[in-house]
UniProtKB/TrEMBL annotation:
Keyword Flavoprotein listed: no
Presence of keyword NAD: yes
Organism lineage: Bacteria, Bacillati, Bacillota, Bacilli, Lactobacillales
SUPFAM superfamilies to which the protein is assigned, alphabetical: Formate/glycerate dehydrogenase catalytic domain-like (SSF52283), NAD(P)-binding Rossmann-fold domains (SSF51735)
Protein name: D-isomer specific 2-hydroxyacid dehydrogenase
Lineage: superkingdom: Bacteria
D-isomer specific 2-hydroxyacid dehydrogenase catalytic domain ranges (all copies): 7-310
Domain D-isomer specific 2-hydroxyacid dehydrogenase NAD-binding: 108-282
Similarity comment text for this entry: Belongs to the D-isomer specific 2-hydroxyacid dehydrogenase family.
Gene3D superfamilies: NAD(P)-binding Rossmann-like Domain
A GO molecular function held by the record: oxidoreductase activity, acting on the CH-OH group of donors, NAD or NADP as acceptor
UniProt KW keywords: NAD, Oxidoreductase
């Protein structure tokens, strides 16, 4: 067994790689996107980003020394969490990096719909000067239910309150947290969702959240509810969503994530007037790698000290 390796699958700037290299002399730093070094893969102990093919090999290897993976995303539903738990591998995510970007995205699509801007864009493409097909509402004083009250949910609540929106939250236990008038537990969500004008999904994908937005949940909502999904696509039953939009149970949906990505060309969602589709862009963040490195270095220093993580460690049996 050779010297342990920190494997950088997410390509970082040269000065960022040097920052990692200067933090420890005990590890070989391998920049996977720049170097083609011949290495013993089993010597990889830390991985920044997730090389799925290599990662599966390491998870299957009885001699792998993999101990910690730093994910570049907030969601970790694509990881084999059971296998991570079996092999006692630490997993941390990038939660917090995307909070401002996703919050701005949500408010952007809301303003686009509520102020008739989306219709104006369509009219401009046709060179039509008309107000006849433009509907408008006041976003201020609307009730918004933010399903998921972590970093992103809290940031969205603070931003939304600046526009006069009344913000309510849903989390596992119903505990009240920053930015919310009141919070409810997952099990009580269907009881209060009919009081809300806007429902925003920010939940990670777990066994409990898989297709939680189904016919039953949509029927529990107030007629004409606005639905936004910036969480995970498989949290929504797409056929039930389409039915809710066609029936008027939902007045509008802004969808950034889907059960199948890319969204198939034959999906009815493409041609629905009351749907706004974006190609999984809500989390795109300026300075992303700088922010990611900050999390990674905090965790690396702690890991080198005592084998634990300082920030964003995933509870593997919960999936977040």
């Amino acid at each position: 067994m050779g010297q342990p390796i920190i494997y950088l699958y997410e390509q970082m700037k040269e000065e960022q790689v040097e920052t990692i290299r200067q933090s420890t002399s005990d590890y070989i730093i391998v920049d996977a996107k720049r170097e083609s070094l011949q290495i013993n893969e089993d010597d990889i102990e830390i991985m920044l980003g997730w090389d799925k093919e290599l990662g599966q090999k390491l998870l299957s290897s009885v001699t792998s020394r993999l101990k910690w993976v730093q994910s570049i995303s907030a969601g970790v539903d694509t990881y084999d969490l059971d296998r991570f738990a079996e092999k006692n591998i630490l997993l941390s995510n990038a939660s917090g990096i995307h909070s401002i970007s996703i919050s701005e995205h949500v408010l952007g699509v809301l303003l686009t719909e509520f102020r008739g801007i989306r219709t104006s864009i369509n009219n401009q493409a046709k060179k039509e000067w008309t107000r006849e097909n433009i509907s408008y509402q006041q976003l201020s004083m609307k009730k918004m239910l933010i399903v998921g009250t972590g970093h992103i949910g809290q940031q969205l609540a603070i931003f939304a309150q600046g526009l006069g929106i009344q913000t309510y939250g849903v989390n596992t236990s119903g505990h009240v947290t920053n930015g919310f008038i009141e919070c409810y537990s997952h099990k009580n969500m269907s009881r209060i969702v009919n009081e809300m004008d806007i429902v925003v999904n920010i939940l990670p994908l777990t066994d409990d959240t898989y297709q939680m937005y189904n016919q039953r949940m949509f029927l529990a909502m107030k007629t004409g509810t606005v639905f936004i999904n910036v969480g995970r696509g498989p949290s929504v039953n797409t056929n039930d969503l389409i039915h809710a939009l066609n029936s008027g149970q939902l007045s509008f949906a802004a969808l950034d994530v889907f059960e199948e990505e890319p969204l198939p060309e034959n999906s009815p969602l493409w041609e629905m007037d009351n749907v706004l589709i974006s190609p999984h862009i809500s989390g795109l963040t300026p300075g992303f790698k700088t922010k990611l490195l900050t999390i990674f270095m905090q965790n690396l220093r702690q890991y080198l000290q005592d084998g634990t993580l300082a920030k964003n460690e995933i509870t593997l049996h919960q999936g977040y």
